Amino acid sequence: MNRKPLVAGNWKMNGVAASLAELELIAARAGNLPAVEIALCPPATLVAAAAARAAGSALRIGGQDCHAKASGAHTGDLSAEMRADAGASLVIVGHSERRADHGEGDAAVAAKAAAAHRAGLTAIICVGETEAERDQGQTLDIIGRQLAGSLPAGTTAANSVIAYEPVWAIGTGRTPTEAEIVEVHGFIRARLAAQLGADVAAGLRLLYGGSVKPSNAGTILKLADVDGALVGGASLKADDFWPIAAAAGSAGPGLSGP
Ligand code: PEP
User: Fold this and answer.
1) Can you tell me which atom of ligand 1 is nearest the CA of 165?
2) Fewer Cβ atoms within 10 A, N terminus or C terminus of the chain?
3) How many domains does the chain contain in total?
4) Is residue 1 part of a domain?
5) In a domain, 167, yes or no
6) Over 80: is that where the pLDDT of 256 sits?
7) The domain that contains 26 carries what CATH number?
8) Among the options 95, 97, 104, 185, which is catalytic?
9) Closest to 163 (Cα-Cα) out of 180, 146, 139, 145
């Protein structure tokens, strides 16, 4: 099964209008890597402007969360339909920072992913264990439970991407060993086959996320069952993000590259 790698950047609560200059540098080059899908997820305040700057390029724009409902009395929230209306074509759901900061459990994540599908967005559904859970040998149990609870009915390779993000690796500079990443990604693929069927599982892209940077992207992105990366801190600057995207296409790093 041919899975086109996806390298998606999550700006989190970072970025103002001037930051779109970085996004424009990526948009200008995204077409040079036709074998890689590249996306950036700026904060909600910038999605419409980002989509306008990326128009006509191969760069996809995404949101970082969405409400399960399409509209209604939910002050401060944004629906998947609003994300799409602003120009997003994908949305991250179930990021560990949302799970921890907003108490979002698997059922809420599944409802958000279903909302993304309803609105025609690709849902990037995040799973990952905490450091305590890994230390207690619970990693695969936790991931299995999150997969069982966070994927809505109707999940397909066309409307969803799974991101494995060990919580302890996010923003810490630490990453699992290559063997640990391969173990978890292989486990996820097998679980998806049991849950969704072999064909869907074979087509679903599995991203690794957690302290991916230019210096480790080449190694991580060539591991078995790693179909791209979800990148936080290193997505804020084009000089850092571009070599990661290029590594997914096995191209040379650096903004002066392809
Ligand atoms: C993330 O939050 O999705 C992430 C992977 O962050 P970082 O790359 O900064 O570890």
Assistant:
1) 5
2) N
3) 1
4) no
5) yes
6) no
7) 3.20.20.70
8) 95
9) 146
Would you say residue 75 lies in a domain?
A: yes
Average pLDDT over residues 234-239: 98
d(CA 243, CA 7): 11
Specify the pLDDT at position 255.
45
Closest CA to 214 of 184, 232, 234: 234
Across the strands, what pairs with 157?
none
Three-state secondary structure call for residue 65 = coil
* Matching residue, tokens 């103002």: 16
Is 100 within 8 Å of 131 (Cβ atoms)? Answer: no
Tally of CA atoms within 13 A in the half-sphere of 133 that contains its CB: 16
What is the position in ligand 1's atom list of the atom closest to the CA of 96? 2
pLDDT at 252 over 60: no
> Where residue 250 falls among pLDDT bands split at 50, 70, 90?
confident
Straight-line distance from the first to the last Cα atom of the chain, in angstroms, rounded to the nearest whole number? 26
Ranges of beta strands (E only) in 56-202 are 59-63, 90-93, 122-127, 160-164
What tokens appear for 100 in the block?
């921890």
Q: Hey, CA dihedral for 105, 108, 110, 116, is it positive or negative?
A: negative
Range of the domain at 12: 6-255
Our answer on whether the CB atom of 173 is closer than 6 Å to any ligand 1 atom is: no
In a domain, 217, yes or no: yes
> Which residue is closest in CA terms to ligand 1's atom 4?
232
Ligand 1 centre from 165 Cα, in Å? 8
The residues that bridge with 176 in the sheet, in sequence order, are none
Q: Exposed, middle or buried by CB within 10 Å (0-12, 13-18, 19+), for 117?
A: buried
Residue ID of nearest Cα to ligand 1 atom 8: 232
